[in-house]
Amino acid sequence: MPGIINNDSELENAIGGGGGIAALFYSAGCPFCIRFLPVFEKYSEPGPEKFLRVLIDGMPSSEEKYAIQVVPTVIFFKDGAVKRRLDGIRGVGLNEADLTVFLKDCGWQ
Predict the structure, then answer these.
(1) How far apart, in whole angstroms, are the C-alpha atoms of residue 25 and residue 17?
(2) Radius of gyration of the chain (CA)
(3) φ and ψ at residue 95, rounded to 5 degrees
(4) From CA 32, how far away is CA 4, in angstroms rounded?
(5) Which contacts of 78-85 are long-range, i.e. CB under 8 A and separated by 24 or more positions?
(6) How would DSSP label each residue in the chain?
(7) What is the pTM of this model?
(8) pLDDT of residue 109
(9) Averaged pLDDT of the chain
């Protein structure tokens, strides 16, 4: 299971450690996020240290810093910098095919 981030400082510490990190930004009350969480967790099983769940509720500075307009959104960080992002579609969210292509484009799988 991916690590769960609940505040801005935890997020900055987690992504600043180097290497590649896929972070799922989600909200606890979002039905599209709830549907997507098991998919994200399934893909994180081989390397949970490289996957994070960021519960964006109560983290307005991170929402602003990473321009989170729609949840779920997955951002790939490399050495602390945003390299790629996969934004959810309003009223639709994300699905497994979206994540598979995204992770492949990031060099995983």
Answers:
(1) 18
(2) 12
(3) -135, 180
(4) 18
(5) 78/19, 78/20, 78/21, 79/18, 79/19, 80/15, 80/16, 80/17, 80/18, 83/20
(6) --EEE-SHHHHHHHHTTSSEEEEEEE-TT-HHHHHHHHHHHHHHTT-GGGEEEEE-TT-HHHHHHTT--SSSEEEEEETTEEEEEEEPBTTTB--HHHHHHHHHHTT--
(7) 0.92
(8) 60
(9) 91
Amino acid 57: pLDDT: 94
The residue type found at 87 is D
**For the segment 34-71, what is each residue's pLDDT rounded down to a tens digit?**
999 999 999 886 655 689 999 999 899 999 999 999 99
Show the tokens assigned to 62.
Answer: 């991170």
Q: Are 23 and 73 in contact (CB under 8 A)?
A: no
Q: Which tokens hold the place of 36?
A: 């997507």
Per the document, the length of the chain is 109
Burial of 40 by CB count in 10 Å (0-12 exposed, 13-18 middle, 19+ buried)?
buried
